[in-house]
């Protein structure tokens, strides 16, 4: 039985610009970065809305032949199925710009697929537009995060991951082409002058940043948590970016970090990132011999707790859940954090010494 497909397709505005007048095409281009239609002058908005109504009616009744002419995204998807689309368990994720026209166009694609029994979802990526380069960089980091949180689960569930890079804007296509090397089983294209689908299988690539991460581990940990850091001189410029005078990981740096962190974090426990946190005398003894996947979780909690203390508790995700103990169930400990909730659920207990929190004991929770 073939694997179900998980198809990721960036969406542009080809549905609105193919087979329309030059005036309409220029209007679409002029307002391509408008987040909401309220930003568009009334006269131009009326022309665009008339165009949208006309395209909506046409695409709804479009057969396969017409759909391939109207939409670059649908052209590739139809050819992916060899022109034989039937209801199935495949999933189609359509990434569009953070704009009114981008989302409108992607919704047309999703509706056409849905009417033919396919499961399609539009993902409007926050800040994805071409007007503001800083916002665009943030959006690319958001796409990396979405891929990391979403795709591995589907891959583990048996889906075949396909990146359809026929549509969308060239700047987004280029970025997703790089991501495809790490997440996709196959990448598909249709070039403008071609009629056949170009299928590129996954290359045997593994992220290998050399010694950059290990030699600058503290800095990468700080940057990934948006904590202040100063020793950035040895970090390659391609892995960082500056937004509003604040240094953070670039989309490439974020990808490198996410693909490397667990390999490093499973080796040993790493020191806190805050002067407000330290290990107690019992801590390392209490975690001795734990499995590598649990050591990853311990290091993640140390990172989270460091940020929690640096932000005076404003950052306290549910996976950390830093809180005081009720009563006095386990002296001298006054607070706990979650270590992990599966298997033999464990907590990490500690107490304050002045303004410094002492992380001291990994143990079962207090009931």
Automatic annotation (TrEMBL):
Gene3D superfamilies: 1.10.196.30, Hypothetical protein VC1899 like domain (Restriction endonuclease-like) (3.40.50.10770). CDD domains: Csm6_III-A. Residues 69-203 form the CRISPR system ring nuclease SSO1393-like domain. It holds the Pfam family Cas_APE2256. InterPro entries: SSO1393-like. It comes from the Bacteria. This is CRISPR system ring nuclease SSO1393-like domain-containing protein.
